[in-house]
Amino acid sequence: HPGDEVVTIGRMHGKIDSNILEYANIGDEFTKLILAKKWTESRKYIAEKGLSYTDVYSFMMNYVVPELKNKGDAIINIADYEFKSNLSSDPSIQMAACLIELFACV
Length: 106
Hints:
76% helix
């Protein structure tokens, strides 16, 4: 049921607001860009939607990984780049590298 994920995320974050609805709406278009290995378009999608990298990593873990052939490597890469992103002065570089690694798991 589509609304269930918003309720679950609301419980995790303690509230439901427009940011959580944004997270819930990252959507199929982004997944399709990753599955098609469209690096530039994937990065542009993140930037144009003003998505937080934290939300994007969570979305990839929950919605993109199940669509990939090599789920194990994808999970390890997402975990690695999510961690590095928090330490980086420019987390967009970590996201760009993570996308490339995910393409190898398609």
